[in-house]
């Protein structure tokens, strides 16, 4: 009975985040920290930071992988599945609805969309400030944080993120090699190492086998699974990077038009949840509800297989002194990456004038000083912004 209540709580918590988490992957990490670490206390700040650092290394949607990981820490593989369903389902349903009914409307310029972008500015600023205090508390780590931010602002490419993290890990090994670490509380992962190895083997077998099978059989559904699984396996840098990859895979093959692709991209910007659910829209356009379901499952499956494969080993690896020395620097670098993402695209696309900045400032104060939950700030800010724009 207790376990069932735990599963229900995992699902409902993730569902609430799936309905309210606007603003893209960086904002999602901020919402997760607020909900899972501060409010629910399901894991510590350090454990959460370590999971974020791990998911930055992996291909696929980093914020969704962090959500899946938290679910697995809380309730094993089923907990991870429930956390993913809760967080992903609202945006899947909305994008399927967009594909079926409202592609003829242009929602990209709506006032409430602008309000949601402004909320993202406040949420991410709040998260960066909190994470910076904890993960960059001294001059060496502040320096690493700032250098990471500057590097990514000057060279805003997804592969640069990976280089920054690798360089930070090497610097951390040298810089913090003489530190003595306190015993870290173990994170209980209810997944065996055998299951982890099986999962990584399955991930590799599908990545190699699906293209071969697709070419050999010429089965339509297999082609769809191959395209979305391959893109989900190989994309680094989050949701926006997946868009050109999918476009190159789908539009030249006449599975949908360029105009239909771009219309869905506009819709995907307007909703909460992970941008990878753009696959649901594409699947719906290509082949109705079965296509939407297949495309969604195929693009997220690599994330599940990688997380299940790595988490059983992560706790023992992350306790090693050298790994912990590297992680001190990596976590500081991740904050730097978030600072760069806060500027572009969060701030540059969210703030267009002094009114936008004033509303963002008020939303930040509600979060930071008044300690109001993020979901409430989303509602209050969007309604307030719409009212303000109507009056002025």
Automatic annotation (TrEMBL):
Main localization, broad class: membrane
Subcellular location: Cell membrane
Keyword Repeat: no
Membrane spanning stretches: 81-103, 110-132, 144-176, 197-221, 227-246, 267-286, 292-313, 325-343, 374-391
Keywords: Cell membrane, Membrane, Transmembrane, Transmembrane helix
Membrane topology: Multi-pass membrane protein
Recorded GO CC terms: plasma membrane
Gene Ontology molecular function: any one: chromate transmembrane transporter activity
InterPro entries: Chr_Tranpt_l_chain, Chromate_transpt
Pfam family, one: Chromate_transp
Annotated family: Belongs to the chromate ion transporter (CHR) (TC 2.A.51) family.
NCBIfam families linked: 2A51
Full protein name: ChrA protein
């Amino acid at each position: 009975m207790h376990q069932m209540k735990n599963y229900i709580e995992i699902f409902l918590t993730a569902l609430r985040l799936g309905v309210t988490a606007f603003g893209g992957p960086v904002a999602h990490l901020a919402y997760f920290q607020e909900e899972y670490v501060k409010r629910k206390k399901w894991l510590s700040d350090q454990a959460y930071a370590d999971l974020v650092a791990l998911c930055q290394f992996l291909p696929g949607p980093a914020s969704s992988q962090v959500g899946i990981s938290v679910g697995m820490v809380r309730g094993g593989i089923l907990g991870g599945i429930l956390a993913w369903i809760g967080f992903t389902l609202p945006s899947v349903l909305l994008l399927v609805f967009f594909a079926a009914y409202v592609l003829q409307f242009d929602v990209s310029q709506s006032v409430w969309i602008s309000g949601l972008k402004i909320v993202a500015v406040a949420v991410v600023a709040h998260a960066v400030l909190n994470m910076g205090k904890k993960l960059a508390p001294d001059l060496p780590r502040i320096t690493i944080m700032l250098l990471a931010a500057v590097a990514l602002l000057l060279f805003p490419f997804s592969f640069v993120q990976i280089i920054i993290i690798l360089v930070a890990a090497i610097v951390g090994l040298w810089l913090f090699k003489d530190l003595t670490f306190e015993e870290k509380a173990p994170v209980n992962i209810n997944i065996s190492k055998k299951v982890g190895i099986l999962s990584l083997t399955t991930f590799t077998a599908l990545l190699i086998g699906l293209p071969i099978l697709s070419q050999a059989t010429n089965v339509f559904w297999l082609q769809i699974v191959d395209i979305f699984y391959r893109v989900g396996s190989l994309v680094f840098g989050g949701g926006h990077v997946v868009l050109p990859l999918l476009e190159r895979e789908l539009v030249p093959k006449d599975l949908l038009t360029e105009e239909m692709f771009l219309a869905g991209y506009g819709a995907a910007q307007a909703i909460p949840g992970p941008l990878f659910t753009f696959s649901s829209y594409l699947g719906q356009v290509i082949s109705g509800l079965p296509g939407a379901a297949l495309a969604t499952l195929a693009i997220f499956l690599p994330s599940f297989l990688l997380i299940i494969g790595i988490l059983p080993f992560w706790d023992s690896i992350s306790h090693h002194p050298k790994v912990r020395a590297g992680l001190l620097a990596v976590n500081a670098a991740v904050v730097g990456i978030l600072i760069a993402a806060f500027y572009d695209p969060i701030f540059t696309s969210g703030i267009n004038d002094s009114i936008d900045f004033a509303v963002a400032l008020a939303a930040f104060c509600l979060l930071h000083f008044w300690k109001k939950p993020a979901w409430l700030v989303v509602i209050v800010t969007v309604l307030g912004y719409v009212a303000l724009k109507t009056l002025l």
